[in-house]
Fold these 3 entries.
Entry 1:
Amino acid sequence: GQTVSHPGILISGENPRVEALRDIELRDNVVVDSIVGLPFRTEGQTTDVSNHGLSTDSTLLPTPLPTAGTNALAAGASTLRTWDTSFVAAEHRRGLYRIHVRERGDWFDQSFEYVVAGPDMAIDAWLDEIESSGSSVNTTFRGQWTADPDTGHEVAVVQSAHPMAVPTTVEPVTFDDIRQADLHGSGNDLWRILN
């Protein structure tokens, strides 16, 4: 908010091709000296956005204040991860969690990240089917999905160079599912990997 003409926190739902941004809760943020003088604003299509404990008191900021020169890019900042999957064909969107885009010189490399859960045999069968078709995938995570190991249900994070069809024998896992599992202690590892 100090370098562009936005408020300190902007929730922007102005893309008409996607659903409204929903279920966003902000807590205990501090915004000081935005160019437009606004600490917070929503625009476009939003539903159930709440902002609790917002302050403009500069004494609440950590010290010393970082500057542009002291900030380093986080590891992996060369990768754009987008949750906008609306341009992928509908038959390949089931279970598609996000798309990774990396700059490779004068071209871009993308991979499609699917997150699914189901019986371990169903996940094995799906991955075997992909492998037998000659497609290349990378299983970046497999683990227990519920707190009860007797269910035999697993979650898998699979990256592919191309969009894929996910069979109905496994279920897509959403951001909300992962967050709820993390809150209850059964999805901590998955939450750390994906967020």
Entry 2:
Amino acid sequence: MKRTQLAVVAVLAACLAGTDAAYAQQGLNVQLGYFSVRGEDGRVDHDVIAVNRQYLLFDVKDYSGFTLGGEWTFPVGEYLEGGVGVQFYQRTVPSVYADWVYDDGREIAQDVKLRNVPVTATIRILPFGRRSALQPYVGGGVGINVWRYSETGDFVDFTDGAIFRDAFVGSGTAVGPVGIFGIRGRVAPQFDIGFELRYQWAEGTLGQDFLDDRIDLGGFNALSVFRIRF
């Protein structure tokens, strides 16, 4: 973990070292979009969401949802741009047991919540240069994902069939790569709009309450980007 965090610092230091004096090309991005989680067949081994599908009724795609972010960008020469940003995603998915109900026929239900806050350091390649009115770009970087996963509600003890109410929580940080592809265009002297796709890879380890299962944090972000240059 320390080595990966040092790598983030190194990326930022390299970006800042190459930043030129044209501060008018810095930017503040506001990102609004949709986070699509990885499908059941592509998730990491022992992923808690995939494991839960064995006895709970829900769809993996239910965990996809709205995401909001912000990013500061700065020039690193004519054809490179650095960025430091943060995003927020949270989703609560209701579920019920597939094969068990209360004696009166009521469902045994719980709410499963996943929250992730990726903090990213990135580099973009601008093939047309940063002064172009239309700027496609591609890039990548590294993200530190601050995540929290919880299950709250009623549960079945498979050893004796007892039903009990409880809450189980796991949290931590997970470091992983980020890939970026996007395009933006100038619509005013200091204002751009664009569209960006991000793919993130990361996974965390849950505690003994979850039998040391893992949580796959990977997936696609489809983002509308509103950029103010200054």
Entry 3:
Amino acid sequence: MDRSDALWTLAEADRREAAAGGTATGHAGGFALSTQPVAAQTLVVTDTAGIEARMDAFACGGTPIPVYLAHPKAGGRCPVVVVVQEIFGLHEHIQDVCRRLAKEGYLALAPALYHRQGDVASLKTFDEIRPIVAKVPDAQVMADIDEALRFAAKAGPADTSRVGITGFCWGGRIVWLYAAHRPSIKAGVAWYGRLAGDRTASTPTQPIDVAAGLTVPVLGLYGGADAGIPVATVDEMRAALGAGSASRIHVYPEAPHAFFADYRPSYRDAEAKDGWQRMLAWFQANGLGKG
């Protein structure tokens, strides 16, 4: 496969993911096969100078769950940010986000939230991946993140009185739901996460259902050119949040889905960098400062 073929494969993956509303994933520890040729040339890599970063594991309900953890080597106890995986799971890009946050003074951790349902590392199509992801119940995800935070308190210099959460695509939806599930956290930032859709036994609630009662301030970052999350749906979410909500949604008019994913052709440098700064400012403004 040459670079042009690889770009077409990723573009098609982006299209299918957007159409599915972010219902596919990958495997902890690497990129899905279809992403490897482009990722090798375009991935932003953050070094570990001044931070500690490692794969670890915690137990939830008797099951060991892999988790990637990164934090500063010095400086005392750190506010905690949970990073929730996107379409391809706990791969190198999500691990890099943890390292970036550690460089900013946070203890960041990303649990492998599909771990129980199956290994999708060798799968090549969304048709193969979707049945596995469809088995992942929201209740399990909430419990695993709860346990990940308990693990963080023991695994590094975590100040678990100051917790935030961020997530991408599939993980963006989870940010909204976790903010409703655990109102004691300080803030959330949801990157192009699905807001509405079918309700199933595994996914009985959508973000738009919890918007009115949300007390945790969540910043939503969305693309105006996202084929899977129309601006009309974003507007419905704003209306559901209500005028008095502490949450906000920012739309980048020309950005597609997955505009932060720097290993995919959907990446938009200006919007990604602006979104990152908005995220850091949001955490700072809502009690997750580094000091």
